[in-house]
Amino acid sequence: MHFSNVLVAFAFTASSVAGPLPESDGGLWKWDSNVPEWDSSLPVKRGGSSITESGEALLKRWEAMAEDNPAVIRHKRLREMLVDSEKLERQDARFRGNLSDTCAEADVIVQNVRQAEFAKFWREGERFPGQMFALARDQIVRTELWKIVQQMPKGALLHAHLSAMLPYGKLLDIVLNTPGMVFKASQSLNTTASRDAATIEFAYSSEAVAEGVSVYSPDYNGQLTPVSAAADGFPAVAENHSNGTWKTVEGREGFKKFVKSKMVITDEEAIHHELGVDQIWQRFQGLFDPAGGLFTYELVVRQFWRELFGDLAADGISWVEIRAGGSADKMAPAEGSTQDRTDPDFWWTVMWEELNDFKNQTAANTTHPFHGARVIWSDYRGRPKDKILQSMQSALLRKQNPVIGELFSGYDLVGQEDISTLESWVPLLYAFQEEAKNKNVTMPFFFHAGETVGDGNTTDSNLFDAIELGTRRIGHGFSLYKHPKLVREVKEKNILVEVCPISNEVLRLATDILHHPLPAMIAHGVPTAISNDDPAMMGQDTAGLSFDFYQVIQGFDNVGLAGLGALAQNSLRWSNFEDQDDVTWHQDVELGQDGTGIKADRIQQWNEQWEQYCGWVKEKAYKNLSPKTRLGVGVAVLAWGGVGLYFSDQAEEKYKPTAEEKAVVDKYVPKVHVVDKS
User: Fold this and answer.
1) 567 CB neighbour count, 10 Å cutoff
2) What per-residue confidence (pLDDT) applies to 607?
3) Where are the alpha helices (DSSP H) in 28-69?
4) What mean pLDDT comes out for the span 327-340?
């Protein structure tokens, strides 16, 4: 009997039977004439879970009759076939079908860890599985599942915006320790009310700036002041914590919290979905202004890149495609440098140098290799058209640069889609591609589209234009599942959707992870990968992908570790590692790991990391689980073929369960029925 033909069913006792029994068809099923008619005069116990003895007897008779009922047997078999057939349509079906024994067992271990935490950890107090991220974040990092997800090789980060990637706490530390960085506020910051109302700016000044009037003085009137002076002079503020305690913060700690309040969507704002999408977008868009000023000095930017690449690699990310562009070309050179600050290539040259330095430093790291980064040139769709056209020209000129041209991967329009539709840009976007062709460069599209809760509105309709314009990937694609024709189109054209779960929740498209359409996309066979969009602003407060990966595996029963693996592998399969024409791109995507180029090599490297990671889950992660969680996991391993769970002597040998764990298994083994489906 092959394991793929084994179905494990746990014995159960039904609490009720619904619907009439079928009549006899002359086969195995026969009505037992000894079963008495229901006597309504018999006493029935109300208000509890138990029924009278007569009722129990009747239930046993009906269950006995149903056991050999061909209709019931047929229903079970057809249901099984239907479930299995649907699973074959999933986008991750092939990946799951190719799982090694080690990864299949790791998948089951993680399923059980998740279920154990559902039953215990996420039921304590007001916690529950799938809770809003802003409310759950501090609890997530206490779970075993979080520790497992952190270690996972995550492939590529395909959708992230430059100025909102590195946590602002780290970025502010860099700024505070860099001479020449200055600060300015729109008004005095002498009271809580004035601090709430003020706007702030950061910049670099090559000339010494004296402290002068303190930014916290009532007499302050918008003068520049050294950032370090503004931070050191921040007044004491009493904070009320969620546990009811009060804490006083001042100086640099207080200043950093104040600045972050101007650059981050707060937990309070994130949970107020009743205020709508437009309200949160208005707040969100304003966060980029103070953030942009942090990237105006060479020494800060160089340190930013080192920290960012380091954080990504530490989180198991081996490749990143960053959305940046027109505004990221003005930067003051380091003190004493002869660099022309008006050189539009300077900003990107610094990125190129730091990227290559980091790759060289980490080249020997085969556990978490970092292959590099590229830029998707992005223009804010709310800018005047003439400014955007100038930026498009700048993008093509940068692409022609023989030194840094390799950095630039493609083109996108960013910002709230309601501001300006893709349809309104169609003529100019085709002109852009014609200009790229004339300059002999490749700049494919990677459009934001369908980042909306609408159905048939202009933002939703951007999906049609993005697909017709030949986008290679779709950013967000939140409303795609509402369009059966477009779902078929993206599958046929191998277009991947860059899904950003936490961003979609914070920007009020989904109230929580449980309401996200990602499972629908996967089930319908749509290629998808996980990204984090603007993690410094959205509450993740980390550059990596672990929080978004955690939300997905914790939120959806049908994903599991194997599903996360498929999403990670997809991210590399749809990475734009090198310039390719459309035909070569699609061939490479279609072949994936079976190809012969850079993409295939990097997917194969990830496959090796994935196998090692699954071995770690199976051996070390299992042993590191808390006693309670280990009891929940027991010695369950996946039956080959993904049919169900079974207990075996071999499992004992593999996992060497404790006596306590064996007792738990022995308790349930008698209730396991092995059925040969062949």
Assistant:
1) 27
2) 98
3) 53-67
4) 79
Domains assigned to the chain: 1-88+634-678 (no CATH), 133-166+290-611 (3.20.20.140), 179-262 (no CATH)
CA angle 27, 33, 38 (to 5 degrees): 125
Nearest to 226 by CA among 257, 248, 255: 255
CA distance 19 to 519: 32
Nearest to 397 by CA among 433, 436, 444: 436
Residue 571 CB partners (closer than 8 Å, separation 6+)? 154, 155, 156, 157, 158, 319, 529, 530
List, in sequence order, the alpha helices (H) in 476-597. 484-492, 501-506, 518-523, 535-538, 546-555, 560-573, 582-591
* 225-275: pLDDT as tens digits: 999 999 999 999 887 766 667 788 899 999 999 999 999 999 999 999 988
Please enumerate in sequence order all residues whose Cβ is within 8 A of that of 298, keeping only pairs 6 or more positions apart, or say none.
331, 332, 333, 334, 337, 339, 350
| Other beta carbons less than 10 A from residue 116's beta carbon | 20
CA angle 289/351/304 to nearest 5° reads 55
Return the beta strands (E) in 401-515 as ranges: 408-414, 446-449, 473-476, 496-499
Residues 6 or more apart from 148 whose CB is under 8 A from it?
Answer: 110, 113, 561, 617, 621
Pairing mode, strands 200-204 and 225-226: unpaired
The pTM of this model reads: 0.84
Residue with tokens 């190129």: 352
Q: Please give the distance of CA 405 from its chain centroid, rounded to a whole number.
A: 29
Q: What digits encode the pLDDT tens for the residues 565-597? A: 999 999 999 999 999 999 999 999 999 999 999
Which value, in Å, is the radius of gyration of the alpha carbons in the chain? 29
Rounded to whole angstroms, what are the CA distances from 359 to 235, 338, 597?
42, 27, 20
CB 467 within 8 A of CB 495: yes
pLDDT digits (tens, 9 = 90+) for 75-111: 888 999 999 999 999 999 999 999 999 999 999 999 9
Task: Please report the pLDDT score of residue 10 as a whole number.
Answer: 31
CA distance 250 to 254: 4
464 falls in which pLDDT band (50, 70, 90)? very high
- Rounded distance between C-alpha atoms, residue 469 and residue 447, angstroms: 9
CA pair distance 420, 380, nearest whole angstrom: 10
Output the pLDDT for position 246.
Answer: 77
3-state secondary structure at position 592? helix
Note the pLDDT tens digit of each residue in 402-422: 999 999 999 999 999 988 999
Question: Degrees (nearest 5) of the Cα angle 456, 459, 464?
Answer: 70
- Type of residue numbered 611: E
- CA-to-CA distance for 600 and 589, rounded, in angstroms? 9
Q: What is the DSSP-derived secondary structure letter of residue 367?
A: S
Provide the token pair at 621: 């992660």
**Exposure string for 38-57, b = 16+ CB within 10 A, e = fewer:** eeeeeeeeeeeeebeeeeee
Tokens for 384, please give them: 């005047």
Q: How far apart are CA 523 and CA 518, in angstroms?
A: 9
- Contact yes or no for 344/400 (Cβ under 8 A): no
The dihedrals phi and psi of 511, each to the nearest 5 degrees, come to -65, -30
